[in-house]
Amino acid sequence: MRNDPNDRLYELFSRDAEMPRSLDERLETCYEAVRRQSRKGEIMQENHPKKYGKRGLRTALILAAAVCVLAGAALAVSHSGFFASVFGDGIPATQAHDEAYYGEDGSLDKTEHYPAFDRAPVDEEQADSLIGDYVSAIGQSVALNGYTVTVRECVIDENGIGAVTLDAENADGVKRQEDGGYPYLNLFFTQGEGDAALFADDRSYIDEAASTDTMLRYVCYFILSGSAKDDVTLHVRAWDGVTMDTESIDGETHEFPHYEEATTTLPAAEFVPAAEGFADGGISASLSPVGLVLRGLDNESGETVEDKIVLRYADGSEYVVMDTDFISFAVAYERSDGSHCYAFNRLADAENVTEICIAAHRYLYADDSVTELELTLTR
What we know:
Layout: H1 5-14, H2 21-47, H3 54-77, H4 80-87, E1 97-102, E2 108-114, E3 116-117, H5 124-131, E4 136-144, E5 147-156, E6 161-169, E7 185-191, E8 198-199, E9 201-206, E10 215-223, E11 232-249, E12 252-266, E13 275-280, E14 283-288, E15 291-295, E16 302-313, E17 318-323, E18 326-327, E19 329-334, E20 340-344, E21 353-364, E22 370-378
Parallel strand pairs: 3-18
Antiparallel strand pairs: 1-2, 4-5, 5-6, 6-10, 7-8, 7-11, 9-10, 11-12, 13-14, 14-15, 15-20, 16-17, 16-21, 17-18, 19-20, 21-22
Helix pairs in contact: 1-3, 2-3
């Protein structure tokens, strides 16, 4: 039990804070240094009582330490929730499985195999060092159909690959989409206006660990079709679960949910830089901590489908982006220029990646033949 006033101050600033162990260790180190300085001040005061006031010196040292501790804690956890939601394991992983699809007559139409969706815990200190300077705190809100949707934070790299977190709040309680049912909230991204608008490819998940009965934490990953420098508009559509619109299709009347829509523009941000120079023959890659762009896989003679992508680090460790029976990315998209893009669900230390290894199948248009490819992109 610490009885000194300094000890009690240390307990006050440390007992209720939720912080990483490394920060707690730094706090203890900081406290010990302040205690030594405080003792030094007491000696100086005893020898020079007119020059150094006892209470003033001790108080100044203690307050300086408190400010340092609080500033360090705020810095360490400023994007903690964002890192956990986007690049951690707050979104549940899924196992590989088959799903059956049936025709209108009830007969089996087809069976699709879905790979496992893999997630992993995030190292928040590493995350902060990799992208902390590029995460934008937004705070913009739109209100519609009983929901208040607040855009929390966003990150985007210079290749137009990014992620954003949103809170959808409803005082009467939030509803999740039922299997096979219509979503109560629909989120998507565009660039440009009207018929010229470009739609981003995106995928939204709910972070159940951060959600409550009246708030859903959405994590939206996106790959822009246009330039990362162009404005990005987030569209939010909300359904009250009751109101329906009718539409006549082939002489039959069908009902569809009536959505209210609101939009907000994501503010300009500083883009996460990408590492260039990875290549193997005519195939090249651009890699950032949040995503990967592969160029040259498709051309006028054929197209390529990746089976496995592995990022290999200088220390021998690996990040397997995808394999034949599991994926550890959030969304993939083929742009009109033929580039293949991947938005990661965990962070890559791009500057320490030495190889990008790809196993793929290439389909040739001329004779419908298929060849296997093994590529190792280095720089």
